[in-house]
Amino acid sequence: MTNVVALSSAQVLYPLGDDIGSVALIQHVGDDKMIVNSARVSFGGDNDAPLTERDEKLIKYLLREHHGSPFEHNLVTFKIVCPIFVDRQLVRHRVGVSKNEISGRYVELKERGYIPLEFRKQAKSNRQASVADDGTLDQEAASRVWSEAWRVAFDSYEKLLALGVTREQARGVLPLALYTESYYTFNVRSLLHFLELRDHPGAQFETQLFARAMAELAEPLFPATFRAWRDLHRGE
Ligand SMILES: Cc1cc2nc3c(=O)[nH]c(=O)nc-3n(C[C@H](O)[C@H](O)[C@H](O)COP(=O)(O)OP(=O)(O)OC[C@H]3O[C@@H](n4cnc5c(N)ncnc54)[C@H](O)[C@@H]3O)c2cc1C
């Protein structure tokens, strides 16, 4: 079962609370039944009947026992507009994920920079993680420093272009907060694996927000699979 959604009518979520960072559902392929059928084909048991309770139990069994291949026939394509530092984490997911990204060699990059609505502090327990401001961070000063750094960097990019420097070199002065945009297609196995790692308190906070938006858009497409997956993660 294929469902192709035109970009203009795509469902879009804005995980970072600005009107730039976004996850749009572009298309999906397959449904919960496809997972059941691709598992049951091994004994000739695939069928056209609506999803049953027995089918749902099979999905849960497949997830619990790590029989992953039946989940690979289903695909979800997102258009993701995210800061480069988030994209650098998304692109680490190598298996079952396809990506095409805007090229800063082809086009002049737009002035689109992420500015955190709230700055966080370094976590003490996890050297990679962050914690919410406990009121001791000077939010205004942090915002000012961030904006100044952005201004210098983007102005330098434009000046280099004006000097006649090629786009592929000029972009080298741009910061990690620059928004990039890509199409990402995950199969459902790789999507669930991604969500386990990135919708997790140990992951980069902004990446968690993107992961949650992706889950929110994908869950209604594969409701039985997500139900079983969430139950397993809750230990039920
Ligand atoms: C909280 C967090 C912190 C992180 N910190 C860092 C960091 O500091 N530095 C850093 O470099 N990365 C870091 N990463 C990235 C991490 O190491 C993985 O590259 C990333 O999460 C992708 O996971 P993956 O390899 O399981 O996914 P995929 O690349 O999609 O692979 C899926 C699965 O396929 C199998 N697989 C894939 N490739 C191979 C292979 N070559 N050989 C054998 N089996 C393979 C594995 O079972 C793997 O789990 C971090 C990730 C998280 C979630």
Automatic annotation (TrEMBL):
UniProt-listed CDD domains: ThyX
Positions bound to FAD: S69, R92, H93, R94, E101, N187, V188, R189, H193
Origin: domain of life: Bacteria
InterPro entries tied to this protein: Thymidylate_synthase_ThyX (IPR003669), Thymidylate_synthase_ThyX_sf (IPR036098)
Residues annotated as binding dUMP: Q89, L90, V91, R92, E101, I102, S103, G104, R105, R171, R198
Co-factor binding comment: Binds 4 FAD per tetramer. Each FAD binding site is formed by three monomers.
HAMAP family: ThyX
Function: Catalyzes the reductive methylation of 2'-deoxyuridine-5'-monophosphate (dUMP) to 2'-deoxythymidine-5'-monophosphate (dTMP) while utilizing 5,10-methylenetetrahydrofolate (mTHF) as the methyl donor, and NADPH and FADH(2) as the reductant.
Protein name according to UniProt: Flavin-dependent thymidylate synthase
